[in-house]
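Thread: "does anyone have the structure for this chain?"

Original post by V.I.:
We have the sequence but no experimental structure in hand. Need at least a predicted one for the grant figures.
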Amino acid sequence: MPRRQRDGEREWRATLFVWRGVLAVSDFGNSVTWRGVWVPTDTDTLPDSGDTRYENSKNDFALQTRVYRGQDELEILESCGTSDEEQFWGLEHLGDIRLTGSYQLDQNDGEGHKTYSDDWHDMMVSCRGQYAVVAACGSTEFGRFVSLGYVDGTEMVLARRYVADDDVRAAWRTPKDVLNGTDWGILEDGQESFDPEAPGVLATKLPWRV
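Reply from O.Q.:
Generated one for you, tokens below.
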């Protein structure tokens, strides 16, 4: 990952990488794209949507699901074409979703941004109370990562934490493992949820302790 300047012995895994982008159903209606930018933060909380770091970021990403062909799957994607604030909550019914694509990253080596891809990246949506929670995990040439975030309308946010091989979170091999490892994972259907961007909430709910 980026060779970032750090104080003392603070390692790069202490940085949380926040991916924020827009979901869309493909023109053919058989897949979903997620495009946006990612920004690093050292505070264990999400920069809000109006943060200028998003506007100024050159860390673009463009990811997509596989092409779905089953009738039930296509009907789910058709429902995601609505305009209400819960339009992509139906992705919950697709189970684990494999994301492929690429993202831009500047390693601070003087060569500028280059294109990278994850080795694998799986996500799932879980509707909890008044929020659609998203959990993900995967692997890159830089190591294993786990992510947690949410869907709000057409926007999806995932906070990615890279974890060392000897970290207990490195054993989380599925998005469901990530949910089960967090407070969000034990919320029952219909239980009152909380605002994921409220002050202090993400720092206590996300499994991001280094």
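V.I.: this helps a lot. The first helix runs from residue 52 to 56.
O.Q.: and Confidence is low (pLDDT under 50) at residues 2-10, 185-194, 200-205.
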